[in-house]
């Protein structure tokens, strides 16, 4: 458990946050300038806040009231930056060994071969950072942080400097890190897709304050806390792979509903997360017939919220989870939509981007 209570004042930001981050991957989520990196740097010991207390698994890293302020090298944390920040004169192997050396006695608990295998960097061990791609550098940076046997891993927008193909390459390794490393992670992002795929807990920030916290499905379903408002709203559904079809589609079992997506990797029975953007969902009062779309999720309207402009957000509770639909107010009026009514969400298979599907 990570416990954070911080107050710090800048010219352009008055930070005042309190939150707890349980085991797993916790995302600090919000617009640029909301205080995400300030919090991470305070946890790392790179910034001394005006007031606060930081505790990791019962170990006090900072308590300004009691005069406790451990230096960064004694906090036993791993930090993954936007750029890999590898030592250019060392090979990948020696960069990784530096992390193990930094752990001191705890290095004996770190399994070098297991980390190398988990991150798929065995073939890179004899190269120097100048010969690596951006995604490869980030994998090595993850390995170096993990081999320091940290109590907590900090990741400050680690995918922000990568192009789309490199992001797609490295995202599965963060999923493995979350699921297999056994180390809690505090992760900074302003990308709804990253949050949907990776987060077990989301701390939503705005202007230095915590405005909401909870599971990714709950936070991403609230347009009022998203960096770009309704444009980023969407549902996060958990499903299992039911079949791999010969026509290139994967069939998921989403709460007893069949959900068809373009072929995704995995075995029958594997659990996956799927983010369905609200603007990719259309609604029908009756179950539609004669449509090209394969995905139809019946449910009941839980909430209907009109925006300031022509749009409206409809939250539909289905057996697969809560689904959001962003439609016009005119459409809502024409259909006579009201909370409590039965309705059907229609989703095109090809509307779900590969980056919105994760383990």
From TrEMBL:
UniProt cross-references to SMART domains, sorted A to Z: AAA
Domain Mop: 290-356
Pfam (any one): TOBE
Sequence ranges assigned to domain ABC transporter in this UniProt record: 1-232
GO molecular function annotation: ABC-type transporter activity; ATP binding; ATP hydrolysis activity; molybdate ion transmembrane transporter activity
Gene3D superfamilies from the UniProt entry: 2.40.50.100, P-loop containing nucleotide triphosphate hydrolases
Domain of life: Bacteria
Name listed for the protein in its UniProt record: Molybdate transport system ATP-binding protein
Organism: Lutimaribacter saemankumensis
Lineage of origin: Bacteria, Pseudomonadati, Pseudomonadota, Alphaproteobacteria, Rhodobacterales
């Amino acid at each position: 458990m990570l416990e954070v209570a911080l107050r710090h004042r800048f010219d352009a930001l008055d930070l005042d946050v309190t939150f707890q981050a349980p085991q797993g991957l916790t995302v600090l989520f919000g617009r640029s300038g909301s205080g995400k990196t300030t919090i991470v740097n305070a946890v790392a010991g790179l910034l001394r806040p005006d007031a606060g207390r930081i505790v990791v698994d019962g170990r006090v890293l900072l308590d300004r009231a009691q005069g406790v302020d451990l230096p960064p090298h004694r906090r036993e944390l791993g930090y993954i930056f936007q750029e890999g920040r590898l030592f250019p004169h060392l090979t990948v192997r020696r960069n990784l060994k530096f992390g193990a050396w930094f752990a001191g006695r705890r290095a004996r608990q770190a399994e070098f071969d297991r980390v190398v295998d988990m991150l798929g960097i065995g073939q890179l061990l004899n190269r120097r950072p100048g010969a690596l791609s951006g995604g490869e550098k980030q994998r090595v940076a993850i390995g170096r942080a993990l081999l320091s046997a940290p109590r907590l891993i900090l990741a400050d927008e680690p995918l922000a400097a990568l192009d789309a193909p490199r992001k797609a390459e490295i995202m599965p390794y963060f999923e493995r890190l979350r699921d297999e490393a056994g180390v809690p992670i505090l992760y900074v992002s302003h990308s709804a897709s990253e949050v949907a795929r990776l987060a077990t807990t989301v701390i939503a920030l705005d202007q230095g304050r915590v405005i909401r916290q909870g599971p990714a499905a709950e936070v991403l379903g609230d347009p009022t806390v998203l960096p770009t408002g309704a444009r980023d709203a969407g549902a996060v559904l958990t499903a299992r792979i039911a079949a791999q079809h010969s026509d290139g589609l994967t069939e998921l079992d989403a709460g007893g509903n069949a959900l068809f997506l373009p072929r995704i990797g995995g075995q029958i029975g594997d659990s996956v997360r799927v983010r369905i953007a609200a603007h990719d969902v259309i609604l029908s009062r009756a179950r539609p017939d004669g449509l090209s779309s394969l995905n139809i999720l019946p449910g009941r309207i839980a909430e209907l919220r009109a925006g300031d402009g022509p749009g409206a957000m409809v939250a539909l509770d289905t057996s697969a989870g809560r689904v959001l639909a962003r439609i016009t107010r005119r459409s809502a009026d024409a259909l006579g939509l009201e909370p409590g009514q039965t309705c059907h969400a229609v989703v095109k298979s090809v509307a779900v981007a590969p980056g919105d599907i994760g383990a």
